[in-house]
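Supplementary Methods S3. Complex input for the S-adenosylmethionine-bound model.
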Amino acid sequence: MMGTMTEDAGTVPPWNAMTEEQTGRWTELLDGVAGLLPAGAACVRIDGAPHAAVVADRLADRLRSTGRRCTHLTGDVPAGRTARTVTLADGSGADRPPDGWDAVIRLRTERGGGHDAEHGADIVIDLHDPVWPVIRHVTRRLAGRSKWYIAESRAFFGPRAATWDTKFGDDMPAYAAAVAETATPAGATVVDVGCGTGRALPALRTAVGPAGHVIGVDITPQMLSVAADSGRARDVVLMLADARRLPFTDGAVDAVFAAGLVPHLPDPAAGLAGLARITRPGGRLALFHPTGRAALAARHNRVLAPDDPLAEARLGPLLAEAGWSLDGYDDAPHRFLALATRSRSA
Ligand SMILES: C[S@@+](CC[C@H](N)C(=O)[O-])C[C@H]1O[C@@H](n2cnc3c(N)ncnc32)[C@H](O)[C@@H]1O
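Predicted complex, serialized as structure tokens:
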């Protein structure tokens, strides 16, 4: 067991009270955050009761251990940046430095104020489980700065893989219905990108028939292991790969199925372009989720973000720019399904 997957299990334990795996997770997270911060002098605020101070302490120690100068303020905020020093302030009450914060880090905790409080944060760290912190959001301005994404995606999905099917197992018929609607032809080569535990794989396998090929791609090894053990990957090739750098030549596949993937990509526009690259002109894309956007947002106790890449007004242009043409959109309470065709001219 990696994280305990408990909800707000209390205080962050000291290093010597955590397992090797848990200290490794903390260290990996702190390195990910450190890599995201601007180089040189920077003023950084960490918000989110009750853990902001301890996270600031740990980040300060980690920055110092890698040779960066760092001050963790417990009092007044400086009048300006201190040369080559990262200044960390904890608590949203900290006065804003004259030039503003270079980064605001928000901790997602039970007492943290919900998703509204995350508005404007540059980095969001989920700390519901104090021994298993995970970066869940990085603003585009900082996102390209380090290799945080793969480690954090695996840290989030890895511990969830074993119970994914018991939690969401009833959705299988919805996957079969979505695959039927995508009308993937017999003999096609189809890739399920972000296949998880393989809930779409049997339906895709049936759709393409014996002459077709199904490939399931995921970035999280534990998800692929569950898919393999479940029997759903029979006659399917499973691949550990990143949707942003798919190991296929241009136009190699006839169709892409992606359930629950796009919201997890740090740059959805680039991700959709990557899916377009591997799909032949005229090929098909299905973006699916077994819950509609509004129902999913309500389940996670948040409101729909106006800039949600899956909103119809936003998705159409995003797809068009990436080389797709949106030709079907259904955002019903019980499912989300957007269908698109690979443009011939792109
Ligand atoms: C919400 S889950 C959905 C899983 C599965 N499609 C389903 O519907 O049950 C998202 C999946 O995408 C995977 N994932 C996230 N980012 C990825 C990436 N860049 N490349 C490949 N897989 C990714 C995760 O590991 C996870 O298995």
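Residues 1-8 have pLDDT under 50 and may be disordered. The first helix runs from residue 20 to 36.
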